């Protein structure tokens, strides 16, 4: 029996515009580039919606209608959903239509596609909660399976997420952790009781996501028959084939003229020709299969680059300085009680900002350069750094105002009993901590 | 090869380039007869004999002449007045260039050679005269054009000399794509006739330990931003002053150092004091050797705001010393480096933004410095000499 589990990541960050030091103190709109550059978020969203989201959603709906056995799963970042609401409601509607079929599962992740688990567990929990609420509001469902930003994963995370109530978590089927074992089974993390770890079959996933149009690849051109043959080979020595990839694979990373849509259109029918094959969503996989062994990730793994580690976001000193700066502001940000400040702070946590500062492969001009809207990692860092200066000023300003108003209210103590409005805002913003019962662990951070 | 003075007697990048290229060529299978103008005294000639004492396949011929790179008509007249009565030179600079060219005929007749390689306009005529005698292919090597030196206001005579040399050449070598574009645009040359050979650097010259300079200034927590180059319109020293002003509005804790001399020196010093930056900008004069290395190393950032920079060797020198660079996009060096900050020379705000961030963030400064130093490792004279050798072979084969 081979269960095929398709999961698509859908995400777009709020890219920072060209923000100069001279804008600090005057301009608090960090993400509103209107130029022709690839930092214009609205422009990018329209472009990708036209090339990928709309045509691929149409195709998926067609496949779901044609094959009652077909199932897929998505994870949308919260910032992606926000941008759909703002720039492309029709794309949102087309996703909602897919979910309404009942055969499309949605997973949870951090709202801001952030690395918060590494830097602030409290903020991590808050962002997951925000995400869950957003999914409930837009799609009417509550996710049961979790995937962390860029499949960043370790044992600690699995345990943490288990206690937040999820039944499964996704991870990269990294060779250095699997060893001789196959990703085509369900695993568990050491120290957990019920949560299942679903591992990406990176070979078969990347055949579609990365190699599909590569003419230097010996298997090019990839047909649905050939791919199905590889899937069928799993029969007898595996339970599940997890095909995890960016949704933008369809039409954006692999352009329409590569034949990617025709490939996908034919694939479910081809796979279902084999009577032992079926499609499952991640939560169905977790329900159906028991864990066959432990997947022991002491160190973080991710699905990025050949290293499958954190180096895409956290390898040079600029990246470390930038991310330390943003998380150092956490307490001050919440103390302002200012919704806009909190939201900007969170948008600045999105992992893409740090990815753009990566110098690892910059000279070779490969995939990092392709996915970088800034000319250099240095420009990305400078814009980010300037924005942090401005954010600090805004926080400082709020603080001073609060001190002043406090003095004022102390002076007029007897006239009015306090400023209700301010107190209220502060509550709604910093409260969610306790909603989810999270036990404090003594797990040490890496 | 018709070349120019070598360090330590050089006044700019052309001498460095001739030296670096010749040194690397002489280590390969190429024999070089190096012809250079000999100014009063002939010190340079002796120096080169010492430098190349152990290398057999290089030979020097000198021609007594008053010309040197970056010379102007006025400067030539000044020299001429100081020469002894019994020595014969041209009536003016242009006459002298012609006289120098005629003497090249003698050398071309006496010295066996397969190709003629001439560096920059002052030697183009010599190259052409040599070709007339020997009939060997002429390669002209463009390190700078009159358009670069004058920021777009060429002297007509010099422009004509350059144009004549470029059209007479069998092959043109440009030190960058930037320079190639200038030649195509302003001199009516087809792009196919021009090969790009980027300059390099001899890394050994920059690795030795030196005592730290300016440590008292650094100890005060001050950041140092450095300009090195001739103080002429081409190098954009006025933009450097404007940028300094903009930076200091945001961060008064930065010291700007200008090292070099040139015809705009007094004007720039005045501009700095007019803008109230007298104590924030230091003029260090023309600095060379270890003193210059110490200056590079003391700086947090090297800035090259050139209006039109055919290459920009100083940027490589800064990186070789581990100092990050901000260079104008209108430069050849920006083509060979990725780990560098780049701005348009006229975009004062953009340069100021970058400078403020570098002096404000150790992470940015260190990453740029570290990766920049690695980046520059592959930019060598060996590689430039290798490309030149290939060009020699191709052109000789073509002639056969």
TrEMBL record, chain A:
GO terms for biological process: carbohydrate metabolic process. Keywords: Carbohydrate metabolism. CDD domains: GH57N_MJA1_like. InterPro entries: GH57_Enzymes, Glyco_hydro/deAcase_b/a-brl, Glyco_hydro_57_N. The keyword Cytoplasm does not apply. Residues 6-293 form the Glycoside hydrolase family 57 N-terminal domain. The keyword Oxidoreductase does not apply. It holds the Pfam family Glyco_hydro_57. One of its GO terms (molecular function) is catalytic activity. Belongs to the glycosyl hydrolase 57 family. This is Alpha-amylase.
